[in-house]
Structures
1.
Amino acid sequence: MPASYAYLGPEGTFTEVALRTLPEAATRELIPYVSVQSALDAVRTGEAEAAFVPIENSVEGGITTTLDELVAGAPLMIYREVLLSITFALLVKPGTRLSDIKTVTAHPAAQPQVRNWLRANLPNAVWESAASNADGARLVQEGRYDAAFAGEFAAARYGLEPLETGIHDAENAQTRFVLVGRPARPAAPTGADKTSVVLRQRDDHPGGLRDLLGEFATRGINLMLLQSRPTGAGIGNYCFCVDAEGHISDRRVAEALMGLKRICLEVRFLGSYPRADIGVEEVRALPRGTSDGEFVEAADWVARCQDGRF
Ligand SMILES: O=C(O)C(=O)Cc1ccccc1
């Protein structure tokens, strides 16, 4: 049996479409799971080699179920990311007209992307959340709801037809998906990489968040995601999910993580992996003094000073 990848199912999710763009998916058995949690648990128990799940979208921000799973529980690591442009179709049973639709469903992350369309076209429809967009389509097939927002490609699979296509409140809405596995050595740097960490502060003090961000700023590291999530330990208790430019094997990134390790209660390393948004040729030039060579030179100089050889 080939190694398997778990993904947020059922068949026909955007997640499945994004997963199939990864070359390595062609050599794996792809197994749909009913939730992000169950897909990630399949990795934790060893049932699946890796899981592919949505983590962020450009309209609403972080997909909180995924972030919370990565923040807590047995540690997992991100190995790859995929960006997918998303537009929705309104899927219905053949023959349904817009005026017949009283209930609509989709994944909660879909709602902010179709809100204006709903207001303009189905202002009185009741919204119910589904476990995924394809699951919403399945529920329409079962007769539980009148319509589902999902990928147009899901229609045939669930015996539905698209009543409307190309629904997206925001132009260029994208969702980011990640391939998550058990902790192991990250892939070698490509020159266009991203590092994800979760930071938990030691104590509550003025400028606490600035102290964390300062570790990145002084080393010229640009941040691509900063999302606070409750730790569950009471009101006002948050940890921070951070995506930073660079790879843990870059000196500036390693030094920033060391700085954070010294001042945080906990730093959870979630991986260094190739960026999906740009290629090596588009990576911005490093700020002066932050290249590996400059870090090595500075460390050598300190060593010489300690030896009295400057
Ligand atoms: O993959 C899906 O179809 C999902 O349900 C997750 C999702 C939700 C909203 C936009 C893109 C993906």
Note: Residues 8, 13-15, 54, 57, 86, 107, 109-110, 132-134, 175 surround 3-phenylpyruvic acid (CB under 6 Å).
2.
Amino acid sequence: MTTKELVEQIRKKQSFLCIGLDTNLDKIPSHLLDGPDPIFAFNKAIIEATQHLAVAYKPNVAFYEAYGLEGWQALQKTIEYLNKNYPEIYTIADAKRGDIGNTSARYAKTFFSDLSFDSVTVAPYMGEDSVVPFLEFENKHTILLALTSNRGAFDFQTQIVNGSALYKKVIQTSQTWKNHRNLMYVVGATKAEYFKEIREIAPNNFLLVPGIGAQGGNLQEVCKYGLNENVGLLINSSRSIIYASAEANFADAAAKKAGELQQQMASILEKHEF
Ligand SMILES: O=c1ccn([C@@H]2O[C@H](COP(=O)(O)O)[C@@H](O)[C@H]2O)c(=O)[nH]1
């Protein structure tokens, strides 16, 4: 999906919500465990109940890999279901990959060509040649970890290296790489005070913002400086939506939570020209 198509969806739905599909068999309603494919059954029910409120879904690949072949098949069924039934929805494989060039090329093939995700998260630590194989895919986005939502972000990402914070170097240097227009960046909602500076160095890129909900980030604070002329934000929430209830009404409860966030987004967009 192109950035333009994503922006059109945001305008249409008045939403920049991304729902994280971090599906854990220990947390889903127990009645689903009796069926043949509980992970996919859960995802399908969540997607059906919330697809009118969200512009994107983000399965975190770790939650699928943890169940071996069965988990990988559930991931495959989930992305196929999304692409077939809701092609207007933007999809993110939260895989946090990146390796030497020829290996990155295999990761890129897996997530972009085989699974047909619109985007994949990539760790920038190994540098340009580890990221460019992802950037070479047309109409696909590579979402680089810049300033993450966790406490450990302060261990390296905010450290000053040659006069500049490392996360800023990641953003600035990556803007010089081949096909850099295909870049987005991960910036945690828990780091709202950094968005002003980040928008100065990445005014046009979309930012994927995890950390609203279970991690306590604040939507208004993120939007204050994070919004750009294309909206430029995909706000992710996973646990607070998908595990709003562990009872038979779990999909309705998820829709209610997602609806609350979408309403807040719609009123933010009402005051924002884009
Ligand atoms: O900096 C980051 C990067 C990725 N994540 C991922 O986003 C979701 C957040 O889930 P919640 O349940 O809404 O906290 C999860 O998949 C993380 O691995 C992140 O939180 N922070």
Note: The chain has one domain: 3-272.
